[in-house]
Amino acid sequence: MNERIKRLRKELMDQKPYVDAERCQIFTESMKETDGLPIILRRAKGFKEVLENMTVWVKPGELIVGNQSRVAKGAPIYPEYSAQWILDELDGKPYRWEDRPGDKFYITPENEKIVRECAEYWNGKTVYDYVRKNLPDEINAAWDAGVTDETWVCAAGLGNEIPDYKLVVEKGLRDVIDRIEKKIESLDMLDPDSLKKRHFLDAALMGNKAVVRFAERIGEKCEEEASKCENPEYKKELLELAEICRYVPLNPARTFQEAVESIFIILLAVHLESNGHAISLGRFDQYVYPLYKKDVEEGRLTKERALEILECFFIKCNEINKLRSWPDTEFFMGYQMFINLAICGQTVDGKDATNDVSLLCIQSCRELKLITPSVSIKYFDGTTDEVLLEALEAAVEHKGGMPAFYNDKAFIKILRRMGVAEEDLVDWSPDGCIEASIPGKWDFAAKGPWLSIEKVLEITLNDGVDPATGTVFKPTDKKIKDCTSMEEIFEEYKKMLKYFMDLNCLTEHINDEVHVRYDLNAFRSSLVEDCIGRCLDLVEGGALYSADGGPTAGTISAGDSLTALEYLVFDKKILTMDQVLHACATNFQDDTTSPTGKEIQMLMKNKAPKFGNDDDYADKWVIAIEEYVGSSLNNNYKSSKYGKGPVPCCFAYSQTPVTGNISFGSRIGATPDGRSAGDPVNNGVSPANGSEKNGATAACNSVSKIPTIWDQKGNIFNMRLAPSTVADKESREKVIAMIRAFFNKDAEQIQFNVVDNETLKMAQKKPEDYPDLMVRVSGYSALFTSLGEACQNDVINRTEVEF
User: Fold this and answer.
1) Which of 87, 193, 211, 230 could serve as a FRET partner for 325 with CA atoms 20 to 30 Å apart?
2) Are the C-beta atoms of residues 90 and 83 closer than 8 Å to each other?
3) pLDDT of 803 over the 90 cut
4) Interior angle at CA 462, CA 571 and CA 501, nearest 5
5) What is the per-residue pLDDT for 778?
6) In whole angstroms, what is the distance from residue 238 CA to residue 451 CA?
7) Any alpha helices (H) in 298-384, and if so which ranges?
8) Following DSSP, what letter does each residue of 702-740 receive, concatenated?
């Protein structure tokens, strides 16, 4: 890093995250004034008012400019999505924001007063309120019991989108505006459908023009700062930035810096419009490379200057922040915005797409050691060992699992099966954590209620009753104690899984209907094909591609539990089913039994085989769960957009639990895998903590057996490598060989933490000494010291594996 980047990075790291009331005040006043108009026009007007009246600022030395709030890392408030939690947490229930165990935020008295007023206005009439009011009692009971949860998409805004940045860079918003205006001219207003179409088009036009004006305002601020600047070199840079912001994103970018600035303004605008997260960047290196190449060839740009611009962009991405309710924060610990940036991969004709910008992204990741954007290597057979080694070395130095590695072969196979056009397949990009999306053509790469797979097993083993709440969900057809084989238990488990998948599908249909009524966002929709052509918002079915499906947690833990039952009860007959169920019900604390509860737990933990060791006996039940859930979601459930234009409109399996494995685990009692009540379940498709006994290759072999064909939403595989495993080039080459072999078996993804437990435990004790320590949490990286203790412990308890 040069001195400019070091200073900007230090300022970023030193900045505390504050809550900013400006956006919610402007938006709320606008919504009061437009009551009675169609929601799409009301929200477009509110968006326009925010962009025209919010504070814009420029920090000395920046080469990419623009802001989401009045301070870097400040979080705007979106009370129209949910408000009660804001009032509760300001009153300290369960924590005030500055007192949280993790993801702390601060607020000034002036901002708190405004936030309270806005929250009180919205309370009772938010998206979250309307979703919960419309859900049947059995769904609300499942939500309250911790079996399912959809807070993330109804209390905090829809996300997981990749706008068409390529279009913006190559044609500018002028092209979008022109197409909207032509569509308006073509409408026959005597056609009954045209009025609704006109509302969408007017809102989209308003939003695009507002974003252009927002960029101009940033340019005007640059010019204002230049008039006060005494440093001639930076004065010149400010004047150049002023010109850039007056030109893009309205017009096609002419230079590499204009392209990056245009992308950042669009990124800011989509966040400000809808409170989404995982607004990702697609194949960034592919759509900015032509301008980089042209600039270098014509002598306007050096690699060093391009790196500086890119690192400024990465720093700006880390200024974007989001305040979530504490229950929601428990699922997304680490201040993450999930801005995924894909590089490498292949061209349409099957050639290696890696270019200089790809390598600069890896270098930026390596030098800056920041939590976002999440740099993702798209791997295919033609990706060179040199690039993979460069990425692995960056990941080792970063420590937090970035870059991560994604398999073109597996995702292309999944998307082809789902009906994605051949010409779109190679451009697939990971969105958020890992979800596969087609940039500029897919609506929400992940959207739907969570499902706690091991919680469903706990309810099954208790004959359809949640032992924590006493709620009777679906009585099993046969008492579990009366089952004489694992196959009989698995049949009851499948019926219970279907019951809750049915509830989740209904939940998402209701959630979509509420969003159609109260949360249409025309600007972001206008940047996804074919919303303008259909005159429909993304939520209504405007995109070419769409598939629902929320995250799941605990599939591997559930498989381990089934394996333990088969091994200990049915095969080896070491325990009876009564003993197992009693031990779980008493959390292994009953020492009056023979064997005692603790002895039973040790048998479950140490005697029963576990997934992650390339043992078919242990792996088969995980595979059975995966096959049943994945095929059911793909084949048996349709989203609310089915028949309205997008394809395939099915549901898909997601095993990207973020930190939901901890939150859901806290709601599950003791289970037959030996897990104590309240402990985390496994993360993604990673073996449960402490399970891997046979090394890295064995763990990969187990994970590679999973039928990924159903997993368009992705499955996360976190691996902790012992530092000695990557200590020299020879050992790193072994890791690369392992990745290649792993991906040849259609595995989807892998990422590495390379940090020893001693360092992590010292960072827990003396966080002030480890402000930059990065770890891979789930499908994202985070500063270790920003995480709550439960999340830190989950990372510490993961097995360090060797070859």
Assistant:
1) 211
2) no
3) no
4) 100
5) 87
6) 50
7) 303-317, 326-329, 356-368
8) HHTTS-GGG-TT-B--EEEE-GGGGSSHHHHHHHHHHHH
Measured in degrees and rounded to the nearest 5, phi and psi for residue 749 equal: -160, 150
Q: Which positions ≥6 away from 567 have C-beta within 8 Å? A: 607, 608, 609, 617
- Residue 665 confidence (pLDDT): 96
Nearest Cα to Cα of residue 745 among 686, 701, 791, 713: 701
Six-digit token string for 161: 């989108």
- Residue 629's pLDDT band (cuts 50, 70, 90): very high
pLDDT in tens, 150-171: 999 899 889 999 999 999 999 9
Calculate the alpha carbon distances from 692 to 363, 476, 745, 795, 798 in Å.
Answer: 32, 33, 20, 15, 9
pTM of the predicted protein model: 0.97
Do 673 and 564 contact (CB within 8 A), yes or no?
yes
Distance CA 702, CA 706 (A): 8
Sort 238 into a burial class: Cβ within 10 Å, 0-12 / 13-18 / 19+.
buried
pLDDT tens digits along 463-486:
999 999 999 999 999 999 999 999
What residues have CB less than 8 Å from 298, skipping those under 6 apart? none
Beta-carbon neighbour count of residue 416 at 10 Å? 13
Q: Which of 708, 666, 668, 667 is nearest to 684 (CA)?
A: 708
CA neighbours closer than 13 Å in the CB half-sphere of residue 24: 28
- Non-local (6+) Cβ contacts of 192 within 8 A are none
Q: Are strands 374-379 and 404-407 parallel, antiparallel or unpaired?
A: parallel
Q: How many residues are listed for the chain in this entry?
A: 803
Q: What is the pLDDT of residue 111?
A: 98
Instruction: Report the first-to-last Cα separation within the chain, whole angstroms.
Output: 34
| Main-chain phi, psi angles of 552, to 5 degrees | -120, 160
378 closest CA partner among 387, 369, 386: 387
Residue with token string 């930059």: 772
- What are 174-225's pLDDT values in tens digits? 999 999 999 999 999 999 999 999 999 999 999 999 999 999 999 999 999 9
Q: Which amino acid is at 339?
A: I
State how far the alpha carbon of 271 is from the alpha carbons of 160, 164, 337, 341, in Å.
11, 15, 10, 16
d(CA 786, CA 790): 12
How many CA atoms within 13 Å lie on the side-chain side of 752? 30
Residues 149, 503, 454, 779, CA torsion sign: negative
pLDDT 10s digits, 122-150: 999 999 999 999 999 999 999 999 999 99
Whole-angstrom CA distances from 661 to 549, 682, 721, 779, 782 are 17, 6, 21, 12, 16
Token digits of residue 118: 């806005």
